[in-house]
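User: Thanks for the earlier help. One more: 2-octaprenylphenol hydroxylase. Can you show the sequence and predicted structure together?

Assistant: Of course, both are below.
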Amino acid sequence: MRGPHNIWRLVRTGATLERTGAMRAILDAVDAPAPLRAGARVLGWPFKWLGDEGDPAQPPVVRALTALGPAYIKFGQILSTRPDVVGDDMARELRILQDKLPPFPLSVARHQIEAELGQPVDQIYAELSEPVAAASIAQVHKSRLRDSLEPVAVKVLRPGIERAFRKDIDAFYLAAGLIEILSPSSRRLHPREVVQHFEQTVLGELDLRLESAAASEYAANTADDAGFQLPQVKWNLSGRRVMTLGWAEGVPLGDNDALDAAGHDRVALSERVLQLFLNHALRDGFFHGDMHQGNLKVAPNGDIIALDFGIMGHIDEYTRRVYAEILYGFIRRDYKRVAEVHFEAGYVPADRDVDEFARALRAVGEPIFGMDATRISMGKLLSYLFEVTERFGMETRTELILLQRTMVVVEGVARSLNPKMNIWTVARPVVEDYIRQSIGPRAVAKDIAKTVRVLARFGPRTPGLVESALIRQAKPAPAEKQNLGTLRAIWLILGIMIGSFGGLLLAAGSPVLFQ
């Protein structure tokens, strides 16, 4: 339930950060200026006693986020992939949040499995281990199937997780409302819509049936991707709160020492993980939305294995083309074209100056090229980009939030493997290939073919549509409206004729449009 009572949740958040020492650690990590430090101290200290103490054995920030709940843990998981923003030490600490959280008892997991699958655990699995990984929403057990002895992973939701997330999300809605009231300029960022998008994403992650379906679709899309594999879902042993899938044996992608010991090429892995993500986002429009190190392994043969499909992103074809053109423009350092694409897509209000916007984008993009990635401050870059978007009145695109967030996460994962990796150099071949496939002459032919297919569906309805249009024209109407209606009727009839002709081409298997 959303309401003023959530003020307590927000106060407790600040108090917990102060009591655990996380507030100071965060301010130190981002090198906050003195006024901000003083303000945080003044606002946080009086309420310190209201905060949760957390587990004293954990580092301060991990301690605070774990005490605050699953939504905050998700935020920490993202920061764990950004050593260039929070520093190497804190990034290493935050990786604990990926899959090393305190588990719930095996007895509780067995009870949930039996309740969900309707059978005793011992009749389904030959064995069920203690938790091998525990994250913010679920934990995983290693097992073997009773009938085939095949090794499998059994994922079980945390008890009460739905209610815990509901509390966090309610507080976020209140915070978004307060931000809009106290800072009217922030409304262009649509804080409420951002929270709503986060809510929809999380609620989808809390139903493991949806995750099973996403894993199945993802596997079908990527079946031919070299160097990439996914575990197979066991549909008959999966439900809303339980998911069974094949066991993935490999080295965690975040363990550089283990990767080196196994003889894996970390530079090649860093490039592959980024290129795989771009391929899935641009080629398929369906991508893994939670690609942190805890959800990635490296198989003995060097393949990257993806796990945890609760958060998946979808982008329509038009948005993919816009995104690709923006990336391609940055890669070619054609900032005028990048600016024009923003205007054409409606991302920037039409009354702004395109040349001025292009110059602002140049100031964002130029520092990237010809530099060692270790010299680029992503925090400062993002800060400047935010200033640019504010100055030109760009509004938050809620449909791109997950894509943007995942891009940041994947870049962080890649750079943890190879700190000198340059995102633009690695992304270039993938983006160029997509441009050739989706924006060139072949793409135009495909678009025409799709249009003809749609028009062809109206073929059987042609007589009725024409008759209805003519009857409407026969009714008395002002001359101007009647003329306009006549033109519309003519265009409708022409469209139907074209659709019928297209249907004939399709029926005849014409090679003209599909070569």
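User: Great, one quick takeaway?

Assistant: The chain has four domains: 4-99, 102-135+137-247, 251-439, 442-507.
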